[in-house]
Design goal:
mainly alpha; single chain
């Protein structure tokens, strides 16, 4: 089980880094989202992987799951959803303003032929 989860984290991280290194807005947003998912799965597994165990220790239960990583992941999901919405709106505004979705756009040179020297 641990090997499967570690492999999933590695694949999500590799795909996220690959997409972040692309020079288009939409793949960068997807890459950041995949990296966020990888971090969330990593945080979730930091509380030990136990299947079917309750998150709170009671008198008659000997095995339980640590509830702190679950709370951290829930908070991280909400924050990443909000930040993804903000980044999508910034990317959409940049695309509508320049009709191009390249991340590394260079500033336009002045049209008066002076090449920017004063």
């Amino acid at each position: 089980m641990e090997l499967l989860i570690a492999s999933a984290i590695g694949i999500l991280t590799a795909a996220g880094i690959y997409l972040v290194l692309r020079l288009r807005t939409f793949p960068v947003i997807l890459g950041i989202s995949l990296l966020t998912y990888a971090v969330n799965v990593f945080l979730f597994t930091s509380g030990r992987v136990t299947v079917g165990a309750p998150p709170v220790l009671r008198d008659d239960i000997t095995t339980y799951t640590d509830p702190l990583p679950q709370a951290l992941v829930l908070t991280a999901i909400v924050i990443s959803f909000g930040m993804t919405a903000v980044v999508v709106m910034i990317g959409l505004g940049a695309f509508l303003g320049s009709d191009d979705d390249h991340v590394d756009d260079r500033p336009a040179l002045p049209d008066d032929g002076s090449e920017g020297t004063s």
